[in-house]
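W.,

You were right to be curious about this one. When I first looked at the sequence I had no strong expectations either way, so I just let the prediction run and decided to look at it fresh. Below is the sequence, 244 residues in total, followed by the output.
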Amino acid sequence: MRYTSDHKRQTHERIVAEASRLFREEGYKGSSVDAVMQAAQLTPGGFYAHFEDKDALLAEVLESCILRQGRRLAADAPLAEGSFEDWIDYYLSTGHLNRPGSGCPLPSLTSEIARQPAKVRRAFTEAMRLRLAELSRAAPGDTEEIRSERAIATLASVMGAVTLARALDDPSLGDRILRTVRGAVLAQLGLPQETPQETPQIKPQIKPQEESAASGDLADGAGSQAGPARKKRKPSRRSPAATE
């Protein structure tokens, strides 16, 4: 039976979507080609009609996750005032912490990517450049250089916090790490530090389109109600000169 090009595209996208979810939940090494194809409800033999090998699939997953996140963030352009703070709050929420399969791929995959072939690291690097560029547009600061540096420092800090918290078997210590890093990041940015209300083991309120494993939209939760509840603060894109 001949399939149309549209059918092949849809099948390809389904494989990428399921691989995206599995790689984030189980890790790249922990997710076999057979497991990916089973999750996509396809036979394993069909994999190589779409990808040269598993590394090629990982490269496409990275592009899909990170580039889609960048486009979601850019879709708000010019980004609403205060959206960078909202993104920080969501990234460091227990909702994002507890949902790796639909969250940012960085905490789950970065350590494995360093040991992958050049084509995978190249895809990751290009996707990361776009991600940082989009975040820098939302970061507070009076110059492009300041905003860029703050975007880099913030992403590295929040990603590290989530990575550490997920590795622990002590939820209270994990929560403390998230709270502490949140306070340190906001202080470094010169932003208000209202303490969010305690929301242990929160279940994020995910919109239907955000359930798609391919998009990784949970990490883009600017404006989402899934993050920790907090007092409403007056958004501030600019911060005091002393912090710059």
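Here's what jumped out at me. Residues 73-81, 198-244 have pLDDT under 50 and may be disordered. And, maybe more interesting for your project: The two ends are 63 Å apart (CA to CA).

Coffee later to discuss?

I.
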